[in-house]
Amino acid sequence: MVIDPHAVAYDRFAWLYDRHWGRDFTRWGLPVLDQLLLRDLPVGARLLDLCCGTGHLAQALTERGYRVTGVDASAAMLRFARQNAPAVEFVMADARTFSTAPVYAAVVSTFDSLNHLLTHEDLTAAFRTAFDALQPGGRFVFDLNMEAGYQARWHGSFGIVEPDHVGVARAEWRPEDRLGHFHVTLFVQQNGWQRSDLTLTQRCYAEDEIRVLLGRAGFGEVRVYDAQRRLPLTRDDPVTIIPACLAGPAA
Question: How are strands ordered across the β-sheet holding 244-249?
């Protein structure tokens, strides 16, 4: 799902993410991609899923006839991805440094993956990866958590209790440094109860920052859609700031 210098946290998170979120996020996000991207692409088009996580979206896109490559930095995420989408090519690589020929009709990066890149330099590098992978006229579609989303959802805690695992998660939004922290403690029954503790960190970027960084990476037109007001989005929805799905064709 994400690229981070401390990929071990995402390795520990992979089991829980695959069990509880990957499939649901794909079910929610696919209608948005249908409206903003997929209806314009022919069957057989090549797609790059950047920060592909456990492969549920890659599998759904493959079932629709697209040729998909998934990229993620977490070895554990990719182990699940190869099980969930056995026909997809997966590459273990960092979104900031992955390099490929410009052979893709579109690049997607979904489920707030890019918020896990914590500096302008890192986010620009990931944008440049997407730009360099696109054929002329290709399109990059991605989503980001914006400030209203953090304010609305990144607080409090919740628990998951199943016969073979117990998880407790606590979200923390820090407006003073524009960082969100997702703290997880997980107990899994594997030859006795095994405990894992991890923290995933995200940065909130403003729309004007994102536009500047996209421009530095080479993108031209940028359209911003409000994912909070209604889903699925359509290209007739008004341009807004929060939360955002940005789509930009290569210049």
Answer: 89-92, 67-72, 46-50, 104-109, 134-144, 244-249, 223-226
Q: What is the pLDDT of residues 84-93, one digit of tens each?
A: 999 999 999 9
pTM of the model: 0.89
User: pLDDT tens digits, residue range 4-46?
Assistant: 445 788 999 999 999 999 999 999 889 989 988 999 999 999 9
User: Residues 181-197, buried b or exposed e (16+ Cβ, 10 A)?
Assistant: ebebebebeeeeeeebe
Instruction: Write the single-letter amino acid at 211.
Output: R
Residue found under tokens 């016969």: 163
Domains of the chain: 7-146+206-249 (3.40.50.150), 149-202 (2.20.25.110)
State the Cα–Cα distance between residues 222 and 32, nearest whole angstrom.
Answer: 16
pLDDT one-digit tens code per residue, 38-66: 999 999 999 999 999 999 999 999 999 99
